[in-house]
Amino acid sequence: MGKADTVTSIGVPPPHPARDAVPSSVRGWLAILAVTLGIFVLMTSELLPVGLLTPIGAALEVSEGTTALMVIVPGLVAAVAAPIVTVATARIDRRLVLVLLIGMVGAANFASASATSFAVVLLARFLIGISVGGFWSLAGGIALRLVRKHQVARATAVVFGGVETASVLGVPAGQWKVADVSRQNPSLLAGAGDMISTTKDVHTFFSALNGGKLLPAKLLAEMREPHPKSDPLNGHYGLGLFGKDLGPACGTVLNHNGSPPAGYAALMYSSPDGRKTLTASLTAGYAAFDLAAYPKLLDGLVKAAFCGGQTTSSS
Q1: Angle between helices 25-47 and 118-139 (to 10 degrees)
Q2: Does an H or E element contain 253, and which?
Q3: 147-205: per-residue pLDDT in tens?
């Protein structure tokens, strides 16, 4: 009986708290989020050049076909590096390996941003390929080590979600560009430009509007009803149209001119019945411009068209 007791004590090892403990849920999920962030950074770094091949090629004076190596090289290198990194780092703490691989990506991205030759960029992309292949070979199944058994499937999905997040957010954000619009910016009138392209089109539109072909009479009357305190430079403003009295011999004209800041402008005048119009396209650019003289010149042009018998649209 005593002998049996001795055998039993040898066959069942005593409990080992440190070895048998279940991973902490909070620490495990924080580690999962860290790995997911790493995947996000890696995939963004790998895919980002896809939408920037043309500007990169222009900056480094290489063709778009050559620039495409920035996408091809990391993919090929990653395929080769994955098994090599896995075997070479088998006895090294995985946390350290993952940190080193992410650090390599950061250094490679810095080198790419600072490069003045395509050779340096290609070398940096080679290093990114090693990082991508090595990180994936270790991170793909790392959820088993970080969370409890019943949470492995969800944790793995979170890790792989870093890929989709990089594609949807990381790559577009990396391609965000700042455009200098401090000079001419015709896009301010894009809506109008999409509908009207020439002074003849402006004539057709404005003549139809004031001729009652586009809106009911009540709405057109509201557009023409001026506000008494509006600026009289172009005529008193209603709900979309200016009204300007040219005097007893000429009557009233309706207009709505417009332009973006510096560069281009359009003039649009019509008689109340829409039968006579003046449309014009102006290009100012950055030439010297006498603001004091402009109202007088414009007034003379309008009176010549509506008081002097000129009925032809000008441009």
Answers
A1: 150
A2: strand 252-255
A3: 888 888 888 888 888 887 887 787 777 666 655 555 555 555 555 555 566 888 889 99
Identity of the residue numbered 149: K
pLDDT in tens, 255-295: 888 765 556 678 899 999 999 999 988 776 666 667 677 78
CA distances, 193 to each of 61, 186, 196, 199, 278 (Å)? 35, 9, 5, 11, 18
List Cβ neighbours of 129 (8 Å cut-off, separation of 6 or more).
Answer: 46, 73, 74, 75, 76, 77, 78, 81
Q: How many CB atoms lie within 10 A of CB 247?
A: 9
What pTM value is reported for the model? Answer: 0.47
Specify the 3-state DSSP secondary structure of 236.
strand
Phi, psi of 94 (to 5 degrees): -60, -35
Candidates 243, 294, 232; CA nearest to 271 is 243
Distance CA 273, CA 100 (A): 78
CATH code for the domain defined by 22-174: 1.20.1250.20
Distance CA 112, CA 89 (A): 27
Architecture, CATH, for domain 190-306: 3-Layer(aba) Sandwich (3.40)
Virtual torsion, Cα 271, 272, 273, 278, nearest 10 deg: 20
What is the location of CATH 1.20.1250.20 in the chain?
22-174
| Dist CA 242 CA 116 (whole Å) | 56
Q: Where in the chain is the domain with CATH 3.40.710.10?
A: 190-306
Separation of first and last alpha carbons in the chain: 117
Rounded to whole angstroms, the Cα distance separating 41 from 44 reads 5
Sheet of 242-245: strand order equals 236-237, 242-245, 252-255, 264-270, 277-283
